[in-house]
Amino acid sequence: MRKRAVYLVTILALSFAGCNSRIDKAQGPKKMAVVISTLNNPWFVVLGESAAERARELGYEATIFDSQNNTSKEAEHFENLIAAGFDAILFNPTDSEGSVSNVKRAKQANLPTFCMDREINSLEVATSQITSDNFSGCVALGEYFVRKLNKKGKYVELLGLVGDNNTWNRSKGFHSVVDHFPELEMVAQQSADFDRSKAMEVLESVMQSNPDIDAVFCGNDAMAMGAYQALVAAGKEDSVMVFGFDGAKDVMDAIQDKKIRATAMQSPNQMARTAAEMADKFLKGKRDFSKKTPLQVKVVTQENIDEFGAYGSDN
Amino acid sequence: MILGLALYNSVNIEPLDQIKKSKNDLIFNAVSYASDFMSNKIETLPAINASDFLVNISDDLDNYAEQKGRKLGISDEYHFIIEGNATITAIEEEYVTVMLEGDKELRIATDFVFGNAIRDGSGMANIDDYQNTMDFNSISVELNNIVRETVVPPFKKKAKIGDALYVKGAVTIDSTDPPLNGPKVIPLIIKFND
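Predict the joint structure of the above. Result:
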């Protein structure tokens, strides 16, 4: 009787073990979704690919979704990836306000979201937000700007997307310095949506009424390249200084070639890897994450360019 | 009757000024937050002896910064609050240079008073408490404005080479790019030793 009981327990144990291994095999590796605001900008391509690459290194399946700068498209992605049974989302939002509801939906489905580069206006829904310290980067860039212009001159500011907090953190950091020098005059402040072509058009238009500017401060590197093109077309590329933000490859090359004066280096690679590693820790049981993790941004100039590689890579 | 009751209970009428007040209560006021800190907290703010600080950062910056400094997120920059007695040795456009006991130099910033040294060196605010990072950054802007408007002008007006003084201030050090000419201090308190 006792032998039969032991036999039965053994059979049951083996059956459960068999079931478990079948379930594991059927489930395969866990999945991370990488949702990116737009893949029409090389900086965000690096962000998305770095996140997916790190997730794969950590043993996850990773799929990249392009929101095409459209919050509705982003909402579709969230619906689909919740239904498809993803385990975590590495998320670059399209809009600090408009993206909150998407992250909230993921949270309701018990899906952790880790924001990258852009923050959302909520402390309750994302597990953590990993962003560049845009403000401090632009304080340092602002100080460099003031010194390069010897504390006087006329300048134009090209803003990014007005619905993005990064736009205003950068602008606020810059103005927290520059506005204290009364001989520096901002003759125009306009949005060019972080877009190169739009920046070129906007600056061409601004220069019609302000032909005597000394500098252009741009909220990202794509706009800096657009501004530089406009200056070349007007024959003013040697007399007007251009400042960007990002550390994108074309601007790093332009700084090396003495075309653009400076940028602020943020590392999409480090940001993405940090987000993937946090998601991995979450899926392994960690819960006490800092709500926000800012990453330092460093100023890259014609004087120190040799210390840096594009997108924050080592040189 | 029932319909009337249902309608009455489904509508909540509040004066517009009350709604406006509730919304304003939710708006973070960086000016008053910074002002309260500068008026009530800086005298008792713990600070590192400035001479010890300079010796330690020159001996083993990485270890010392990791143990005694504060930093925001992932960064090579560390922030400290330091204090000490010193003598003015030079007055320049952007700095007043002072010599501490032990022949170590500091530069008190009088023109470029920017950045997060005070906010992050003191640990007065936690980024996790701020839904919009702009509010968190506004604290630094307002702290620096107070220093620029109330601490620097009387100091610059009175400062002469050879004057002895007590200074408490905030310092930021980048561990990958340590300062060559003595760290820059954003002054919080300056008292001349008459």
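Confidence is low (pLDDT under 50) at residues 5-26 of chain A.
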